[in-house]
Amino acid sequence: MKTWVTRILYTILAAYLLSFWVEPIVGSTTFDSDWPFYFLLIVPMFASLLPWFAFLGLSMIHFLTILYIYNGSVFDWFGLWVEDLTRVMSGELPNEAIFFSAMAFIGLLFAILVARTYPSYGFALGMIVSTLGVMAYFDTWTLYDGEGNILYAIVASLLLLFVTDLAKRPSRSLVRFVSIGLLLSIVVALASASPTIEGDWSDRITTSFRNATTDGEGSGRGRVGYGVNDEALGGPFEQDDGIVFIARGAPARYWRIESKAIYTGKGWIGAPVLDSNYNRGQLVDPDVDTTPEQALLRFERRQTFVPYGGEYPQATETESGTEFRVGDVEQTFPNETVTIRPSGKIVFENEEQVTPRTIQLRYSVPAFSEEQLDLNEEVSSLTEEEEQVYLQLPDSLPDRVRDLATEITSESETPNEKAEAVEAYFRNGEFQYDTENVARPEGETDYVDQFLFDTQIGYCDNFSTSAAVLLRANGIPTRWVKGFTMGDTRGVVQGEEEHTIRNRHAHSWVEYFIEGAGWVPLEATISFSDSNLLQMERETDTSDSTPATNDPQATQDNDAQNRPQDDLLIDDVATGDVQEEARSIPVWGWVVILFLVAVLIWNRKVIERQAMYVWWMSRPLTDLSLVSMHKYLMRRLRANGFKTDGRTPSELAKEVDAYYETNDMTRLTALFEQAIYAEQEPNSKYKEYWKIMIRRIMS
Amino acid sequence: MYRPTVQSIITAIETVIVGKEEVIAKSLTALLAGGHVLLEDVPGVGKTMLVRTFSRAIDLDFKRIQFTPDMLPSDLTGISMYNQKTREFEYRPGPLMGNIVLADEINRTSPKTQSALLEAMAERSVTVDGELKVLPSPFFVMATQNPIEHEGTYPLPEAQLDRFLLKIEMGYPTFNEEMALLSRFEKEEPLEALHSVITKQEVELMQREVRDVHVSSAVKQYMVRLIHESRNDPHTYLGGSPRATLALMKAGQAWAYIHNRDFVLPDDVKAMATSVLGHRVLLTAEARYKGKTPNQLIQDWLDTLPVPMDREVNEV
């Protein structure tokens, strides 16, 4: 192949690999657009094909153009850079300038490297390792999901290695064409086969949530995730590991999205527009202590909801930095209206009702005191209309449900005690948590009735709906809440906890109303603990622990619960330990595999050498093994261009020693001759010299 | 490199002979292997001088026979003469009755006399008047032959040549050697000053020791393969005989011995191959026409023949 063709291919492949950096890097920032970064990183690489002065000129022009586009000025970038640097030093996210200069520098660096080192195995390998490293890093620690791209990156890596090889040694091409083809097909075949072999290696991650939102629980087999339609609950569902969002900065807690008020006998439908304070950004009574908390949410894709960790968010900050208040919907985005629905659902009133990719949330987390929970007053804060809605029960509800409700709470006085009794009822051992063998109510069958009396097998929807119905039957205003559990703990990033919330963390629970306290959450689903849901202020606790933090007491409580066998696992937070996410192993796996392949290709000699060491050094030196060792040595020497045929061992030794400027081969040969031609016992020193020679030859 | 005794002989000889270390070593090899040497080269390169020096350094009985066309076998072996005093036939030993016999210009005498010499070389005894006379030990013939003069010569038949263990070519000295030669012989006669460094008994002992030099199966294999190669090569009309194989082994042993080793290396075989086979291989007319020489062919075989590196023998 012509030199320039390989060179262009080499550059293209290197540029392609570098382009994999853009998405994760940009994705972890607040930038909205990727293309300037592609431009910054990739253009210099192609410019490197030109003569050096043209390359330098073009790089400068390109750099300045980018700066101009983004800063509106070519000259003040340095000032911005310094400003940014101070900002980064003080622990904030980098802003544009520093980011641009860093990117431009990386682009330029790689361009220079690719131009100066072409063709270089070292550069190609470094390129591959760093690209996969970047992908793996961002895959593990950020929302970026490299699993879709990793295959392309690996194929590109192999091709890059191949092109490098081609450029280095233009001969013997057919064998290499065949072998690279083989290797590529093996990789692709492995990649496509893997998800079916190991179900967990799913690439469903990126696609599933869309299914979940449209699927509802209408018919057939549902899929776990947040959905809008809850009119027909029941039936088994499939697990889904797709990431919904990543929350940084907040401790493990439940993420509320909305509540529903009307129970139909089959499921839930939304509430009509209501009017009390509790529908205007207030979940709890003003007397309840709240702790402000903030979290940075990064969505895998734009969503139609904003989850929040406590009360309704008071203020959110988005990528453009604009503040707005949601509570009483007083201010909006400059371009978008953000409303909070009576259900508590926060909606961006744009065309598709989608959120930005990143949202900085501020909300307060209520912590109820025991007195507040024990209040037993007439409900007066809710409007009559609201009260009706929150006490609504369908006429079709069988009487035995109401009877059961009365029976369960017969010994309870306050709403809180009744709620606790209901919660305890589900934990009496008769109920079973399962996502597979869950019935769907047919015909006239009531969803709650079927669960409470017939099946007693179900998941969160069964438990929460039943709890809501039981509480309502006891006259306690109750609503059904949807959201997510705390998700998987990813670890601590820049001193802040990060949690990954996936589709399978979709959850439902209930909120019941206590006059003087507000809406108190209740976790009815067995094998789930409400320690992350309900913050209790413990007056006996002298250490004044802020309720918002992960209460060790509560987590122990959680630990004591019997664990769910299936989804909605919360054991990630059980110990409060930071655990690395198991989900990312496939990407790391790919990196390791590719790295091994590269090492194998590169250091085939080293590996072979080590294998030979291990093999020969471990066995006793007999004349037979000595002959084999010597023959192997001869083979290696032949591979290094020494002619061995017709050479006596000592002639060869002289040549080899003259070449390597040593006398090791002569010494080795003397021992060999002793063993073979004098037919004496092999001298164990032979091994030593052999090892020295092999290292020399195969280095 | 050399065995100390060998080294001392070589050093002694080199006080007279300038350069020619390889020739000296090979001659010694032939002596220790119990073989004989055919020195072949143009006149005046020091063949005779070498042999004389040799005999002096080793304290051996030196005899010289200048071959002429009219020489008879009895001129070599000696004759029985009637002693009038004792009234008995008395054996008068001929020039063969020495330890080192210089057979100068062996191709100048008739085949009859040649064969008498060669028979004596092989048998190490002569028969005079029906009486077996055993030749002294060690018995070492160094025959010289002039390869360029053919007028009035009787070239040695191939079968006879086979009796020489080695054929050694002297070659001209190098420039420096010849300069050294001039200054050495300018004023004095170094040969006169040469004293023997080794006794006859020691030589006999060394000859016995040579036989103890170990020849591994690998090396034997190598030798046999080489001889087979000489027989199978399309350029050869006549390859090495089994006697050649034996000669190769003996030469190899002695070569290894003088190099202070008690086992034979393939290198020894290589070193001896041309000297042992050079006069035993006959080329086809076609090969000669192409300008090939036996030495070239032997070198080709050595360059291509794989050297056995196994202990066990692989049949070919």
Set down the secondary structure blueprint:
The complex is a heterodimer of chains A (699) and B (316).
Chain A: H1 3-27, H2 35-47, H3 52-71, H4 77-89, H5 96-117, H6 121-141, H7 150-168, H8 173-197, H9 205-215, E1 222-223, E2 237-238, E3 243-248, E4 255-260, E5 262-263, E6 268-269, E7 289-299, E8 315-318, E9 323-325, E10 338-340, E11 346-348, E12 358-369, H10 370-374, H11 384-390, H12 399-408, H13 415-426, E13 432-433, H14 447-455, E14 457-458, H15 460-473, E15 478-484, E16 488-493, E17 496-502, E18 506-514, E19 518-522, E20 536-537, H16 552-560, H17 585-602, H18 604-617, H19 623-639, H20 649-660, H21 664-676, H22 685-697
Parallel strand pairs in A: 1-2, 12-20, 13-14
Antiparallel strand pairs in A: 3-7, 3-17, 4-15, 5-6, 7-12, 8-9, 8-12, 10-11, 15-18, 16-17, 18-19
Helix pairs in contact in A: 1-2, 1-5, 1-6, 1-7, 2-3, 2-5, 3-5, 4-5, 6-7, 6-17, 7-8, 7-17, 12-15, 13-15, 14-15, 17-18, 18-22, 19-22, 20-21, 21-22
Chain B: H1 4-14, H2 21-32, E1 37-40, H3 47-58, E2 62-66, H4 73-77, E3 78-83, E4 88-93, E5 100-104, H5 111-123, E6 125-128, E7 131-134, E8 140-145, H6 158-161, E9 166-169, H7 175-187, H8 190-193, H9 200-211, H10 217-232, E10 236-238, H11 242-258, H12 266-277, E11 282-283, H13 285-289, H14 294-304
Parallel strand pairs in B: 1-8, 1-9, 2-5, 5-8
Antiparallel strand pairs in B: 3-4, 6-7, 10-11
Describe this structure in words.
The complex is a heterodimer of chains A (699) and B (316). With 699 residues, chain A is of the alpha+beta class. Chain A has three domains: 3-193, no CATH class; 222-569, C8orf32 fold, CATH 3.10.620; 604-697, no CATH class. In chain A, helix 1 runs antiparallel to helix 2, helix 4 packs across helix 5 and helix 7 runs antiparallel to helix 8 (173-197). The longest helix of chain A is centred in the first third of the chain and has 25 residues, at 3-27. Mean pLDDT of chain A is 73; it is low at 195-220, 317-335 and 538-585. By secondary structure, chain B is an alpha/beta fold. Chain B has two domains: 4-203, Rossmann fold, CATH 3.40.50; 212-304, Helicase, Ruva Protein, domain 3, CATH 1.10.8. Chain B has helices at 4-14, 21-32, 47-58, 73-77, 111-123, 158-161, 175-187, 190-193, 200-211, 217-232, 242-258, 266-277, 285-289, 294-304; strands at 37-40, 62-66, 78-83, 88-93, 100-104, 125-128, 131-134, 140-145, 166-169, 236-238, 282-283. In chain B, the strands form four sheets. A five-stranded parallel beta sheet of chain B has the order 2-5-8-1-9. Chain B has a two-stranded antiparallel ribbon with strand order 3-4. A two-stranded antiparallel ribbon of chain B has the order 6-7. In chain B, helix 2 crosses helix 11.
